[in-house]
Amino acid sequence: MGIQDQVTPIGREAAGFHDYILMPAITIITLIVLALMIYVILRYRRAANPVPSRTTHHTLVEVIWTLVPVLILIVIAVPSIRLLANQYSPPNADLTVKVIGNQWYWTYEYPDHGIELTSNMLPEQRDAQAGARFRTAADGPEQLAVDERMVVPVGATVKLIVTSADVIHAFGVPAFWTKMDAVPGRLNETWFRAEREGVYFGMCYELCGARHGYMPIAVEVVSPAAFQRWVASRGGTMPGSQPNANPDSTQANTLGNALAAERPDGSEPVEPTNEIQATTNQPTVRERSPAGM
Ligand SMILES: [Cu+2]
Questions:
Q1: Rounded to the nearest whole angstrom, what is the distance from the C-alpha of residue 234 to the centroid of ligand 1?
Q2: CA 160 to CA 193: how far, in whole Å?
Q3: What is the pLDDT of residues 213-230, one digit of tens each?
Q4: Contacts (Cβ under 8 Å, ≥6 apart) of 140
Q5: Taking Cα atoms as reference points, which of 233, 160, 231 lies closest to residue 202?
Q6: For ligand 1, a single-atom ion, which residues have Cβ within 5 Å?
Q7: pTM of the entire structure?
Q8: What architecture (CATH level 2) is domain 95-233?
Q9: Do 9-87 and 95-233 come out as alike in CATH topology?
């Protein structure tokens, strides 16, 4: 029972908050309420009180049962808001990975390394088509193993840009305390810094269709040297490893491609705006409507 072993600073902070503040507070409050109820049931039972008390107010008790919960909430608020603030103030990113949810698999893009991966769940041997890759023990547990893991270096601050190609998904890895909605048309940002090498599993956390339960996530945290080898093996390049004659050109090209992807016909974004204005400015519809009543 309990929370998965946390391998990020945020995860450890959150798990500590859960283990040392929330759980003790919940346990103590539950036991106090239980004890009070048992005491009241026994002490004020009808048989022991033939003449009922007419008490309706007790100022001291009322002040106590108002102040004590307020104090508990204040005590909880301090670490809670600190955790929230830390989650939303990431250190400078060493690495950016764009995570795209699809029905029903994930794609991972490393824009600074020129790598794009498609990550599908590995089928079991009994379900795999002839010649197709199936899950082995080395890949991980059933329904969590994938053919392409997201690979990141240990100790690096990884910025995740999370979006979706179709419906809402959610990217989450419990051991990182990382979870973010993948919403089509939006770029959501989150981050993690894994401090221990290993393979960490997650899954889609938003009911996204028939195969929602079959789009797991596997993140492999490796040494920086192993990460460089992995980048090379995928035909990618480490940022800065190939000095460019015009350092701005890469960025400009990426932006240009992104814009081109938005409008395959290359039309200017101004045109549709004018069309909309032209339509809404047409007075005929509004003039006719009273007569049509
Ligand atoms: Cu999904």
A1: 26
A2: 11
A3: 999 999 999 999 999 999
A4: 146, 199, 201, 218
A5: 160
A6: 169, 204, 208
A7: 0.73
A8: Sandwich (2.60)
A9: no
